[in-house]
Amino acid sequence: MSGDGKPVPEGAPRPNRAGMTGTGARKASAKSARSRAREFALQALYQYLVGRNEAQAIDLFTRDLAGFHKADAVHYDALLHGCVNEAAQLDALIVPLLDRKLEEISPVEHGVMWIGAYEFLHCRDVPWRVVLNECIELAKEFGGTDGHKYVNAVLNGLAPSVRPAEVEADKASGKARG
Quick one: fold of 31-173? Predict the structure, then answer.
């Protein structure tokens, strides 16, 4: 529905909500330093996955990009270097939840899933539903048309195995679907 209550035709751009772009992603001005860190980490991981560049060289390049000063540099470091160093472990968590070969997954969605899996494992201060939402937002902004739906399904499937108590508590309180 549009703001005036009329249905929006299929394929038409979504009406803008406060703080959102036409694609449903958050506008830059509405993003936290951690959200920005995730964006820069995703761009760096894309370079790693596609270009097979060295993490240190990617890191130096990324820090020079416009807007990096607004990102949480510590969180960016943890995501970039953590995902690169634990790539095999993260892939081992993700692969059983895929409906196709890992090589057939877009590098953007692959990087987003690495970020989600890494945060599930190592960023216990970030609630699992926040990790999931942030990754969906990344996939909406940088991924393919329906990539965010795939990321959602995979990470939603992973959460109960890596954050069981938190997911169960949310289900019990009605915050998460069972």
Answer: N-utilizing Substance Protein B Homolog; Chain A (1.10.940)
